[in-house]
Amino acid sequence: MALSSGRKHGRALSRLAVAAIAAALVGTTAGTASAAPTAAAPHFPLMATKASGELYEYQPDGRGAFGDRKLVDNEWTDITAATQTDQDQNGEAEHVYVRASDGSLIYGPTVDEQQEAVVIGGGWNIYDRIFSPGNLAGSSEPDLLARDKSGVLYIYTARADGTLYDRYRVGPGWDIYTDIAGRGDLNGDGKTDMVAKDKSGVLWFYKGTGNLHDPFASRVKVGGGWDIYNTLVSSGDMDNDGRSDMLARDKSGVLWFYKGNGNQNDPFNNRVRIGGGWDQYNNLF
Which range is the signal sequence, renumbered to this chain (predicted)? Predict the structure, then answer.
């Protein structure tokens, strides 16, 4: 994998944190901003941050769990949101968007020490959820989703350098969800999908259409009981079967693995326990 543990990964992410802190201190801003290639099944590490600033990396072991964690950086105290992206859509994460505490959004590499981070722009504190499930709009780059505090969801399509075009309004009402997650294709049709958990604990499946102006088909109910979890996150295909999977952290800090099965109405197999202690982290991405 391009995103591997080691010095280059640590240095690149450390430099990205420094860029985010610098943006927060000086208020730097920058300009904002085809058929898509067939994307490989995403296979990302899971990143985890502590409130004290440590950033850890967990590499999937190919069996639905992780190897030992590795400390990547300890300067992530001023970063309030982060999401990995696969800019060339080869299934590997090589870039990340991070939001600094002043609302600046920064885009930078996770493996290339020579590539500089770019400040996309300010004002991103209007959003309470920022993440990239992959290519939703059918373009040649992964997209960024952002939900504002009134519950309106927006999609940002990206240029090749990670800068963003103007946002497109997906629609209101997304404040009924306490969590939205996904990484790649969940139902086997080659398009990026995602799931959302509502306030009553029901999980809903959103099939991706590949259309910027209508990126999701009507939601499908997966089932109830998901209110036992306080975090949903996906790092893609964790068990090397070509399907994206899901992770869920319960309120006692135990992390659970949900194997993807390609079924739209019931996209996950029964959960498997990974282990406890995950409540030490304030963000998983």
Answer: 1-35
pLDDT in tens, 216-228: 999 999 999 999 9
Nearest CA to 64 among 279, 249, 247? 247
Q: What is the DSSP letter of 45?
A: P
Mean pLDDT of the chain: 88
Closest CA to 160 of 88, 83, 82, 85: 88
Predicted structure pTM score: 0.88
| Structure letter (DSSP) for residue 252 | T
4 has pLDDT over 50: no
- Assigned token pair, 117: 């981070």
pLDDT at 110 (0 to 100): 85
* pLDDT tens string 24-37: 444 433 333 333 43
What is the per-residue pLDDT across 77-125, written as a single tens digit (0 to 9) for each? Answer: 999 999 999 988 889 999 999 999 999 999 999 876 677 899 999 999 9
DSSP H/E element including 105? strand 105-109
The beta strand positions in 110-211, using DSSP E, are 118-121, 127-134, 143-148, 153-156, 168-171, 177-181, 194-198, 203-206
CA distances from 284 to 12, 38, 63, 131, 215 (A): 19, 27, 20, 11, 25
How far apart CA 240 and CA 11 sit, in angstroms, is 28
Q: Rounded to a whole number, what is the distance in angstroms from the first to the last CA of the chain?
A: 18
CA distances from 57 to 6, 72, 213 (A): 10, 7, 35
Structure tokens at 180: 């939205």
Q: Whole-angstrom Cα distance, residue 160 to residue 162? A: 6
Residues 207 and 215: beta-carbon distance below 8 Å: no
